[in-house]
Design a protein that fits this description.
The chain is of the alpha/beta class and about 300 residues long. Helices cover about 30% and strands about 15% of the residues. A nine-stranded mixed sheet has the order 3-4-2-1-5-6-7-9-8, with helices on both faces. Helix 2 packs across helix 5 and helix 3 packs across helix 4. It is globular and about 55 Å long. The structure holds 2-acetamido-2-deoxy-beta-D-glucopyranose (3 copies). One 2-acetamido-2-deoxy-beta-D-glucopyranose (NAG) binds next to helix 5. InterPro entries: SurE (IPR030048), SurE-like_Pase/nucleotidase (IPR002828), SurE-like_sf (IPR036523).
């Protein structure tokens, strides 16, 4: 009887090893809320993110330095702290006083092997960013910079998440509605990719995921959203896309996020980690569509 109970209480899977980063800083509540839902879902998760807000720093990379006299963002570490550090009671929560790319690199090369007996992450997630990262915003985004570092340089499949709603908020404030909704949506996409089996994504690709507004009375719970497969740029002059939803031209993520926000569409675009634009190869697009099929919808 007792052993039956114990067995039932064990998680069904041990989860995959996931490294998380962002560009708003390790103490931003969007990232912490996503960390918590991944943890509760049974995934193995390590956060390694900048000590300060590094929004808009793209793919910059530099050796971490001692934290300045003001301390980490939202007073999440004292002034003069060491260049890298962890939460005093949870070693899975780590800051790196440098850029997003440096922080995910340190997480992949140093922190993860230390906590996982030498093993490296199997999947990388970044964000959810405070603010969208669509179309021409992509090259400047540290959230996408960290994801493309993982996919291209570290050869770890990566997903970048960004959400329209919200202002910078400290990790220890009450969890805002949008942070919870975005975390739930990001979890659903992450689990869908994990369930699709390894390799989780084709080589050198990442997913650029954007969430529309999430506000009370509107798109206010994960179940109200639909997931649409889109492009980062319009593709006017590029080869035809995969044959999907009765068309060979995928919708543009910016159209859905900027102009149809009240329709609750989450956009998922296949990203080329070499140049942060759309994967134009229809065969590669189709591989990704097949992985996401359990959750994808077509536009009406
Ligand atoms: C560190 O982790 C503890 C326990 O999870 C939490 O209460 C505290 O707020 C965290 N502090 C920071 C800066 O992450
Ligand atoms: C980070 O900086 C950007 C612009 O540099 C700003 O828009 C954003 O609100 C800041 N975020 C935080 C967490 O302070
Ligand atoms: C994702 O959400 C949909 C409903 O929106 C649900 O049917 C599905 O089971 C979820 N998938 C995962 C892997 O959580």
């Amino acid at each position: 009887m007792r052993s039956c109970f114990l067995l039932a209480a064990l998680p069904l899977v041990h989860g995959v090893r996931i490294i998380q980063s962002n560009d708003d800083g390790w103490a931003e509540i969007n990232a912490r809320t996503f960390f918590d839902v991944l943890d509760k879902a049974g995934q193995q998760i390590i956060l390694s993110a900048p000590a300060e807000n590094q929004s808009g720093t793209g793919s910059s990379d530099a050796t971490p330095t001692t934290v300045d006299a003001d301390g980490c963002e939202y007073s999440s570490c004292p002034g003069g702290s060491s260049p890298t550090g962890a939460n005093a009671t949870d070693p899975r929560l780590n800051y790196v006083n440098s850029y997003p790319v440096t922080s995910i690199k340190n997480g992949i090369d140093v922190t993860a092997p230390k906590l996982w007996n030498g093993a490296k992450p199997e999947l990388a997630v970044t964000g959810p960013n405070v603010g969208s990262n669509i179309a021409i915003q992509a090259p400047f985004s540290g959230t996408i910079g960290a994801a493309t570092y993982a996919a291209k340089t570290a050869k770890i499949p990566a997903i970048a998440f960004s959400g329209v709603t919200g202002d910078p908020t400290a990790w220890n404030a009450p969890v805002p509605l949008h942070s919870q909704v975005y975390a739930d949506l990001a979890l659903n996409i992450t689990q869908t990719i994990v369930n699709s089996g390894a390799p989780y994504l084709p080589d050198n690709t990442f997913l650029n995921v954007n969430f529309p507004k999430a506000e009370a009375g509107g798109c206010d719970s994960a179940s109200k959203f639909k997931y649409i497969f889109t492009r980062i740029n319009t593709g006017l002059l590029s080869a035809r896309d995969a044959n999907w939803c009765g068309s060979t031209r995928l919708p543009w993520e910016a159209d859905l996020i900027l102009f149809r926000s009240s329709d609750c569409y989450v956009t998922i675009s296949p990203g080329d980690a070499n140049d942060k634009t759309t994967v134009n190869d229809a065969a590669v697009q189709l591989q990704i569509i097949n992985k996401l099929k359990p959750i994808l919808s077509c536009l009406p």
